[in-house]
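EI: anyone free to look at a 207-residue chain?
SC: sure, send it
EI:
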Amino acid sequence: MRVELLDNESFLNNIDSKDKWNLFKQEYIKTYFINKNKCYKDIDSNNMLDILTDNNTIKDKNMLDSEMQIYFSFIANFIIQRFSDIDLYSNLFVEFMIISNNSMQELNKQYMKKDYATDVLSFPLEIYNIQEIQCIGSIVINMDEVYSKSNTYKHSIYAELSLLFIHALLHILGFDHENDNGEHRQLEKNIIEEFNLPNSLIERTIN
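SC: here you go
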C-alpha cells in the first residue's frame, strides 16, 4: 500500500520543521531499525533505509514531502503486515492531507456535525475489487493541533504526526476503539511500542 501526500495548506514550509524531521528519524525510526534489525518487505523499504542514513539538511519542500510519503507508506505496510498478506494491498492507497485548524473545523462540522476543530479525521471508502488500483480512504490531520499536542506532551511534531496517522489508518482498516473489545487499543499500543513512539491517542485519553 502506498500513501499519497496531497498538496497541503502550510505543511512543513519552514526550515525548523525540516530540521526536526532529521532529528525525528534519528531518534525514532533509525533506532528502530538498528535495535530490531528488521526490514519489512514493502515496496519502499530500500528507499526507507536510504532516508534513514541520509543526515543532510533537506533543501526544499518537495524533497521533504517525498521522504514523508515514503515514511508513511512504510508505516502503512508495516501495520498491514501484522494481520494480513501485504500483497493483497499492493493496488490500494490512502490519501493523506494536513490542514489548518480552521479548515479542520469546517470538515468536522460538515461531515461529523461537530462545530469545532479536532486533531484527526479518517474517511474510509468501500473497496469493490481489491485487485484494482483504488483509494481505501482519506486521513486528514490538523497541523495546528500537531504543534499544540507535541508541545503539551514534549515530543517531536513527527512523533505526533505518526501517532495520529497510525490511529486514523487503523480506523480506515476497520478498527473502532469506541465499539470494539479493546482490539484497536491493543494493536495501536503494540505498533507504537515497536517504534518507541510516545503514548497512543487512546492511551493518553484514558490516562
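EI: The first strand starts at residue 2 and ends at 5.
SC: 👍
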